[in-house]
Design a protein that fits this description.
This protein is of the alpha+beta class and 370 residues long. Helices cover 41% and strands 14% of the residues. It contains nine helices and nine strands.
């Protein structure tokens, strides 16, 4: 089995890392134009738009995305980012911002998704679950980090970057048939939205009949299933979840499936020990009741680890060190505590002002009863 190797440039070491190794037969399942799909998949992992070159030297010639077929596809490509990295929002990794307790928002999640999607977005089945795009077990800190860290890559976002983003927000949900829900949690398949910066709808194979729509959200099995269609488009009447979340999970699935040992070892040795507590420590969850709506199967351990890898890779690419992150984290935590204290004092002042006249009247009545 021949593979295509993707190399990423790690700024902190100025070293090209063999990051992904993807079998050609897998690429053929996903697209008609291999380099365009590889470009998108690398973007989903790397978190930066860029171009491929067959040369590792600066100023190397950009590949021809439209005309390179599987017959003349090379064995390795170097991904050259074309945008400036933005700073990491350290506060997004503060576990104090994360809540896994049962909240009114969580109780509304299943109802909101069912009202919006009505039935499974792929099959139309009524026997469906409200699934989280980013698993609920990752918490609100994770979805807040993803949105803020990658916000500059998208023209429009359905989120306010000024507020913390709830893991149970409707944008993070999708209605799936029960068996598909379980497979989605195990990263057996992903959703590809086109057009995106690298691909157009016609680049993706289609099992449905008729003309190709202008916008597609396609289910793609990462591992080829037996006896099933390997791709299917969402129902046209269903509004898809935002690209920023689907693309991040696409990248996590790519890392889980095709990550190279060199990249894995670097992530584990240089960052896992330092960031694991911040990324993974969460309050204990209260046990859900049997009839609680919106309860879903836990995501696979491999997928959760792959998500951490993508986040850690983003930090590594921006040359974020554990010490600088911890310092910034403490500073922002202190600022948040001070803001909370000032907010409490302001509430007391408003209460005293609003009740001052009533208090004076009450005292006068006590001293000078009629």
């Amino acid at each position: 089995m021949t593979t295509v190797d993707i190399y990423l440039l790690i700024e902190s070491t100025t070293e090209w890392i063999r990051a992904l190794s993807i079998p050609r037969e897998d690429i053929e399942r996903f697209t008609f134009r291999p380099l365009k799909w590889l470009r998108f998949a690398t973007f989903a992992v790397y978190g930066a738009k860029g171009d491929f070159s067959e040369s590792a030297t600066q100023g190397g010639e950009i590949v021809d995305y439209e005309n390179v077929s599987f017959d003349n596809l090379g064995d390795k490509y170097y991904y050259i980012p074309n945008n400036v990295y933005h700073l990491v929002d350290y506060n997004a990794l503060n576990d104090k911002c994360t809540s896994s307790a049962v909240t009114p928002r969580r109780l509304d999640f299943c109802r909101d998704i069912c009202r919006r999607d009505d039935s499974c977005v792929i099959t139309g089945s009524d026997a469906s679950d409200a699934a989280h795009i980013i698993p609920r077990s990752k918490g609100s800190n994770c979805i807040s980090f993803v949105v803020r860290d990658r916000s500059s890559l998208y023209e429009r976002l359905p989120f306010s970057l000024e507020d913390d983003i709830d893991i149970d927000c409707i944008e993070n949900g999708i209605l799936l048939r029960k068996d598909l829900h379980t497979k989605f949690g195990a990263a057996r398949f992903v959703f590809l939205k086109t057009p995106n910066f690298a691909m157009v709808p016609a680049d993706v194979p289609r099992v449905e009949q008729g003309s190709i729509p202008d916008n597609r959200t396609t289910l793609q099995y990462v591992e080829q299933p037996t006896g099933r269609n390997i791709q299917a488009d969402r129902r046209d009447e269903v509004r898809p979840p935002p690209s920023i979340l689907l693309d991040f999970m696409y990248g996590a699935a790519v890392v889980k499936r095709w990550k190279c040992d060199r990249l894995r070892d670097m992530l584990e040795q240089r960052f896992k020990d330092d960031f694991s507590k911040i990324l993974n420590e969460k309050p204990k969850r209260s046990a859900p009741e049997d009839d609680e709506p919106g309860v879903e199967p836990d995501a696979s351990a491999g997928l959760l680890e792959a998500m951490d890898d993508v986040i850690i890779l983003s930090m590594l690419l921006k040359d974020t060190t554990p010490r600088s992150m911890a310092t910034e984290w403490k500073r922002r935590s202190k600022e948040e505590e001070l803001r909370s204290q000032e907010h409490s004092r302001e509430k007391v002042r408003r209460w005293l002002n609003s009740n001052a006249s009533e208090t004076v009247s009450a005292i006068i009545k006590c001293l000078f009863p009629e």
